[in-house]
Amino acid sequence: MRPVRHPSRLRGVEVTLKEAQAERIEKEIWELSRFSAEGPGVTRLTYTPEHAAARETLIAAMKAASLSVREDALGNIIGRREGTDPQLPAIAVGSHFDSVRNGGMFDGTAGVVCALEAARVMLESGYVNRHPFEFIAIVEEEGARFSSGMLGGRAIAGLVADRELDSLVDEDGVSVRQAATAFGLKPGELQAAARSAADLRAFIELHIEQGPILEQEQIEIGVVTSIVGVRALRVAVKGRSDHAGTTPMHLRQDALVPAALMVREVNRFVNEIADGTVATVGHLTVAPGGGNQVPGEVDFTLDLRSPHEESLRVLIDRISVMVGEVASQAGVAADVDEFFNLSPVQLAPTMVDAVREAASALQFTHRDISSGAGHDSMFIAQVTDVGMVFVPSRAGRSHVPEEWTDFDDLRKGTEVVLRVMKALDR
Ligand SMILES: [Zn+2]
Fold this sequence. Notes:
By secondary structure, the protein is an alpha/beta fold. The chain has helices spanning 22-33, 49-64, 109-125, 151-156, 164-167, 176-182, 190-193, 213-216, 256-273, 309-330, 349-361, 377-380, 407-425; strands at residues 68-71, 77-81, 90-96, 133-138, 200-208, 221-227, 229-238, 278-280, 284-287, 297-306, 333-342, 345-346, 366-371, 385-391.
């Protein structure tokens, strides 16, 4: 009888991969950008005709790259290239293909297209992979339709509860379950979408930086070390509204003056921390809001983000104390309420090293960077090792039609992804 060759014998096989092609990446990104609702930029919301068109194109591209294709309960598209050792967990690469309203054509889509390019390069190079390789296009990351960010990534991590399929609704009251079912999916099979370390060895996501750092420093590759945590607070300052002409200054309980001081103090605290932590007051309302009325009530939001959990904790403690002090000095009442809390995620050190080593070996300039935006990767990191590769964003612009990344930078990012996959496959 002929002896069966053990798959691990293939360990030593070294195939030189062909190069990724910027032209193919460019063509596919432009092609996908056409699948958009009316209006400036790209608007591709989940389970819409635009989504359906992109889905069809992606499935065709995966099949053309000889991948077997399946969709999970929520419509994440998984293209798979079997490995020589069926016992091994998959090494996956991917990103999301939905968009914000009037967003750009690179956010998410760039990572999906680069994953497809990696699949084509593997095929053309005749690469023999031991682990199964998966190329994943993820749905509903932006939360632009159902107001729940990273739904697709959370499903992969097994973190979507069945009841969310009904509780998450769009502006017309259509639930995720209804929309996904109408889209031809089986949302009830949510549990089967969940992956674990047993069947997913690693996940790699290439994404545009969405910030200005790489471009400003003229660096080709961002080696993502962490994804920031987010705390969202609401501060309510209550004074008393009065006539703006007849109320002497010393008798006022103007809510806006202390609120303005609070905003300035938060800014000062964050500048003092100087560790990548950022704070933004993006929304502020003044009531009653008349030009001839002393402000009686002011509400503002605080969006705090940091790669360091400890910095967020210290910052929030400091803000709470400060708000109390400023309010009491001004003779007004103030309340701080936290309404959103997502901890920072440190990516697996082995993956960070693998991305850094790949960029070095390819002689691309690179630097470690913390992601200031949330990504599916932060949830997938709960079930397996995750690595992220950032490529430069022109002028740091994102979530706008002007969003741009050079196609050659995407090629370089793809080269890094390919090298990391190869390293993990050894
Ligand atoms: Zn994105």
